[in-house]
Amino acid sequence: MNNKSLSYWVFLAPCLLALFLVLILPLAYGVYYSFTDFNGFTINTFVGLDNYTKLFSDTQFLKSLWFTAKFSVVAVIGVNIIGMALALLVTQKMGKLSTVFRTIYFMPNLIGGIVLGFIWQFVFIKAFTAIGEMTGIELFNGWLASEATGFWGLVILFLWQMSGYIMIIYISFLNNIPHELMEAAEIDGASAWQKFWKIKFPLIAPAFTISLFLTLSNAFKVYDQNLALTAGGPFGSTEMAAMNIYNTAFKIQDMGYAQSKAIIFLFIIALISVIQIYVTRKRETDL
């Protein structure tokens, strides 16, 4: 082994060690515990596939998966549309105002999920109720008191937090579009829509791959916002998959069963992410 390859592995070793200790080892333990009746302290028996067969008849877990899937679809579409719209807005010729707007739009992403949840809980319960009483509009009354309003409350919170972050990704790609292309399109008389659809959209296709992956993974693993805003209520109707797994592990103290749920949930997220990356990468090539 020459000095070059030795130094390469010396510098790489801490990263590999951290990856092993933080990701690979806990995952291996999690898989093992999912085949046991581990309660957080002891393992009494090895139950095999019992935990996995049990979860497919767990109506609350299946309901939380379905709720998470619906939330993820709406949230991912909404975040990317709003993020793209904001990126197109702040990349216009506005001088120093462009930087100000970028900062304002990005700021919600700096606030922690728990804090955001309590902020929006106050807005939905106190502010909306006050507006409903003053205007007489029934729409503002009873927010977070039903599955429907709880669902849209979580979506609004997620959009408000993530749109500015996704905006930054789209901005980085929009700023790399050659000015010569846009000037040529203007000379040819292209409309604003034509310039976006025929020039900008194909050139920022890689941004969609990145943004969709980030928003998908973040939407599926939402926990702190769910906890602070609705705590899964009313009656577990807005409980997302991450909260269901947490409650099984730390409230019921059935960590072996919770691990089996987590492994299935990980598999679902990984499968969807791989399919999404494959489809969007192929779309990039086609464009």
TrEMBL record:
<dbReference type="InterPro" id="IPR035906">
    <property type="entry name" value="MetI-like_sf"/>
</dbReference>
<keyword id="KW-0813">Transport</keyword>
<keyword id="KW-0472">Membrane</keyword>
<keyword id="KW-1003">Cell membrane</keyword>
<keyword id="KW-1133">Transmembrane helix</keyword>
<dbReference type="GO" id="GO:0055085">
    <property type="term" value="P:transmembrane transport"/>
</dbReference>
<protein>
    <submittedName>
        <fullName>Sugar ABC transporter permease</fullName>
    </submittedName>
</protein>
<comment type="similarity">
    <text>Belongs to the binding-protein-dependent transport system permease family.</text>
</comment>
<feature type="transmembrane region" description="Helical">
    <location>
        <begin position="65"/>
        <end position="90"/>
    </location>
</feature>
<dbReference type="GO" id="GO:0005886">
    <property type="term" value="C:plasma membrane"/>
</dbReference>
<feature type="transmembrane region" description="Helical">
    <location>
        <begin position="151"/>
        <end position="173"/>
    </location>
</feature>
<dbReference type="Pfam" id="PF00528">
    <property type="entry name" value="BPD_transp_1"/>
</dbReference>
<dbReference type="InterPro" id="IPR051393">
    <property type="entry name" value="ABC_transporter_permease"/>
</dbReference>
<feature type="domain" description="ABC transmembrane type-1">
    <location>
        <begin position="65"/>
        <end position="276"/>
    </location>
</feature>
<dbReference type="InterPro" id="IPR000515">
    <property type="entry name" value="MetI-like"/>
</dbReference>
<keyword id="KW-0812">Transmembrane</keyword>
<feature type="transmembrane region" description="Helical">
    <location>
        <begin position="201"/>
        <end position="220"/>
    </location>
</feature>
<feature type="transmembrane region" description="Helical">
    <location>
        <begin position="110"/>
        <end position="131"/>
    </location>
</feature>
<feature type="transmembrane region" description="Helical">
    <location>
        <begin position="262"/>
        <end position="279"/>
    </location>
</feature>
